[in-house]
Structure prediction request, 447 residues.
Amino acid sequence: MGAESDIVLLAIVSLLSACQHGYYARLVGRSRMKHKIMPPAVTGHPEFERTFRAQQNCMEFFPIFLVVLWTAGFFFFQEVAAALGLLYIFARHLYFKGYVTSAQGRIAGFYLSLISLFLLNVLSALGITNTLLKKYLDVNIVKQVHHMF
Amino acid sequence: MGAESDIVLLAIVSLLSACQHGYYARLVGRSRMKHKIMPPAVTGHPEFERTFRAQQNCMEFFPIFLVVLWTAGFFFFQEVAAALGLLYIFARHLYFKGYVTSAQGRIAGFYLSLISLFLLNVLSALGITNTLLKKYLDVNIVKQVHHMF
Amino acid sequence: MGAESDIVLLAIVSLLSACQHGYYARLVGRSRMKHKIMPPAVTGHPEFERTFRAQQNCMEFFPIFLVVLWTAGFFFFQEVAAALGLLYIFARHLYFKGYVTSAQGRIAGFYLSLISLFLLNVLSALGITNTLLKKYLDVNIVKQVHHMF
Prediction:
């Protein structure tokens, strides 16, 4: 069974994030109807434009998020990566909700999302360095940290 | 060999979908030339605007599709996930072709793509629940369903 | 250890590419400030519009790149896929830098990025064909090529 339970938390967080992004696409559709902005137009009422840009920004960062989530979870600790992934999802929730209200409202959520991406990136780099050390120098730091708990 | 053949169908569907999305990027380029819309402009002739928005919408959903495809295929049945993946590719084909012709033309393909995403999402949730049950309660439902066939 | 070292190079390239895309998002933010273009607006000064479109194009191709990188690396040779992945990162660097300067400046980097995507696609197709041959005909070509070196 090993392999599946090693990544199940990462899969859960990815799936939640995918649902969140699907939901944001739906909110853009609703905002279109509310402000009567017919596709393919993407300009018109300021609230629609903010909703659309919020969703676009989330979509742009989604593949980046997935890469650092899985690299951190696979090469470092799955549990820590999944927790930071939940933080990212929450940050994006703040960002989207804030951005729909005002351009200023996006900032807190955005910085929180950057912090969680940055931490996932650091964990990824540590995990990968550890794998390279194991491969070429037969040293395993992550395992030693694991043993400390 | 195990691992490779466990994901080969998912890899084939992902690769087909990646080629499809690359092809749509190319169609946007061709539409630029046809209507003489020079980069970085993304507005002008309505047909170009529809083609561009069709491609943008496909691109936005691509990471969502990949997440649900792989989660469903890895935690549930690879074959079912791959079949739904092919349905999604076909739905996107209808969507894109329809949207280039008219904004109304995008709707049938779009709803079909949502249905396949929804089904992949349900399978993912079932597969993940099963893995959690296996891990914490030592119950394996997917295996029992497998044995029924 | 096997599994981790089998994908560590792909993870490194993916992480580098994710950082590159994060950096491009930051450059769009800087260009906003430089030209005083407040969100959610995405039009205004031509240099900003080129920077924004360059980043958008990179983002659109990022999931496509990840799919062909991992498929090629997992089913064919990790080392060759990682090398082509570095070529893609370099090509995107040329593309972005060129596009910020002028629309014409994007072309060389763009074609180089297409070449590396095309090669990764070919390797993916070869690797997948090999896995299918192994599964159904018990023939392993990649292993035989591996033995030649």
DSSP finds five helices and no strands in chain B. The CA atoms of residues 10 and 78 of chain B lie 7 Å apart. The two ends of chain B are 24 Å apart (CA to CA). Chain B touches chain A through 29 residues (CB under 8 Å).
